[in-house]
Amino acid sequence: MQPADKTRNLKLLLQYDGTPFAGWQRQPQNRHQITVQGELEKVLCQVLQESIEVIGAGRTDTGVHAKMQVANFWTNSKISREKLQYVLNRLLPKEISIERVEEASKEFHARFSATARTYRYFLTTKKTALEHRYKAFYPYPNLSQEAMQRCADLIVGQHDFTSFCKAGTPLKNKICTVQKAQWKKIGTTFKFEITANRFLHSMVRLLVGTMLEVGRGTLTVSDFKRIFAAKDVRLAGASAKPNGLFLWKVHYDTLHQEHIQQSEFEDSE
C-alpha cells in the first residue's frame, strides 16, 4: 500500500552473502543484531534523508544467502536509479550487492506481488576450504540421491507442511503448493531445488535435514511419508545447516515481472 506521504515506488534487485547477518528481517527487539533489511534501511535513510521502510520478497533466516532477492520501498527523492545504485554499492557492506534499481508501479509489493519463490540447497560430502560458506558439509559419502528424490516426489502438490515448520510458529495456515522438488548430484555436491507458492519458517532446512536421514539410511522413504502425514515437527529430522541455503529466484506474473529475469540472474549450477 502506498504511504500517504510518499510518491515514488522503487524496486531493488539484490544479492547477499548471509554469513554475517542475523537474517533478512530487522530485529527491533535485538537492536545489536545486524540484518540485511536493517543495513539497507540505514544506508537509504542516510542517502535519501528521509525515513525508509524496505519490504523484501523473502525473509531469509540467519546465515542464509540470496542469489536473487527483490525488495521495494517508497520515497519522495528524485535521485536517479543509476546514482542510487552506485551510492548504495559504495556504502553497503561488501556482502550485499545491488544488481539493479527499477521504477515500480504503485501496486507493486515485493512480497505480496510474488507468485512463487525458488530455493536451492547445496551440500557436499567432501570437506572444502574455499566453498564452506556456500555449501554445507555432511560426511556421508554414500548418500542415496534416488531415496532422497523419492521423498521429494512426495511433497509436490498442495499439502500441509506442519511437520516441516519450526515449532511455535503462530501461523495457522500451513498449506503450501510445491511446484518443483528435485535433487541433483554433481561429483561430491548435491543440490536440492524447490519452488512453491509460499514457504513456512525453516521449511526448506527441515525438509532437507529429514531427507538427508533417508539418504544416509537412518530413515526410510516410508518413514518420511509417515512423518509428513503426522503434522508433527517433533518427528522431523534436524534442520539442515543454514550456509547451504539460497533464496534463488522470486517469481512474479507478467504485470510485475518487468526486467527481473535478466543476465545477472541467469540460471546456473
UniProtKB/TrEMBL annotation:
The keyword Transcription regulation does not apply. Pfam families: PseudoU_synth_1. The active site is at D61 (nucleophile). Keywords: Isomerase, tRNA processing. Its EC number is 5.4.99.12. It comes from the Bacteria. Belongs to the tRNA pseudouridine synthase TruA family. This is tRNA pseudouridine synthase A. It comes from Candidatus Thermochlorobacter aerophilus. The gene is truA.
